[in-house]
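Q: Got a minute? One more chain.
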Amino acid sequence: MNVSQAIDAFEQWLRTFVLSEWTLYQFAVIALGYLAASLLASRTEPALESKARRIKGNPDLLRVVIAFMRRLKWLFLTAWLWLASVVLTQNTWPSQRWLVSTALTLTAAWFIISVLTKIIRNPTLSRVVAISSWTYLALYALRLDAPVLSALDGPAVSLGAVRFSLLLVLKVVVLAAALIWVAVLIGNVLSHWVQRSGDLSPSIKVLISKFIKIGLIMVAGVIALSATGIDLTALTVFSGAVGVGIGFGLQKVVSNFVSGIIILLDKSIKPGDTITLGDTFGSIRDLRSRFVSVITRDGKEYLIPNEDFISQQVVNWSFSSDYVRIDVDFGTAYDSDPHEVVRIAIATASTVDRVANEYKAPVCWLTCFGASSLDFRLRFWISDPANGLTNVRGQVLMALWDAFKQAGVSIPFPHREIIMRTPVEIRQSRGD
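A: Always. Here it is, folded:
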């Protein structure tokens, strides 16, 4: 076909499909549907969105529902174009409804893609995925996908029996990303289901959740490679060499990962435990594959590598029991009755809310005849160490201060006696 014939064919296509009377009718149908859908959506979206925001406890579902509500215009336009397509199919030839059919496909695809991609929390990534998906579907609807795919499949590099082309790489990346995303989504749903189980310990829940996520991701990767036609046996040597290099570079990552599994299996720590590691005192918030999240009383969150919990000494305040004993030392003057002091101290400690009287009653002992005071030690138990230790000590000390003040028991302070002598007195004391 020469240039003049191509031009004649293009002009004939314009007259038949673009400049024909039926094409103008289809433009009018699409424009009328768009205006009606916009008007109807502006009336219904605010009321429906206000009702949808009552959903609590499931932010992902709320994002999808809100995205659905804000795109009702495209839903109404899709319904209008579908109705118009049905009517035109029964009364016209395919050449007289092609524009409505194409608009229906593109509108429905954009509506579905834009709603589902709202599950992706990153706005930029969500936009990129939506535009890329809709662009491919648009090329498919316009029958332009074959030339584009052929152009991408042209440049290629052969590695043994595997031919790596730009199209193959794009397929692997897109399919792997999609399957891994679905695997993570399913893993999160299953993890929430496991976390709600009342028959499993917290450590076993975390371990099962991690195995589910890792297993689903590995399966997704294998399915992606197999679906794109890559022979996994052809990559054995290459993956072995890469694996050795990655192993040397990621020794700490692997060590922390294995340490995390050991921690979960031996149940030494679990979410909610109160621990002390070095100078860090706080409660465990989460167990990850690489680190343990520990949040302290001042709001700081420490991400401590799992390996430290294996190699260092860890104090778990709630390993076998939530009850923790606390000692409070104080002193009274020598003119105080120690029996009365012990009685007041025990009665006062029992009135503090956080003291676990139901577990063990407080006790108080005289420990020493000090230089300036009678020294006592008050011991009591609490069941919520995660709520802090210093604050409960302060509450008990304040209660003791009030009780001793009311009972007339004085709390001494150190006294020092200084004797001043003149030089004459010093010589006389020496016998000079």
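A: The chain has four domains: 3-143, 156-249, 259-316, 324-407.
Q: Perfect, thanks.
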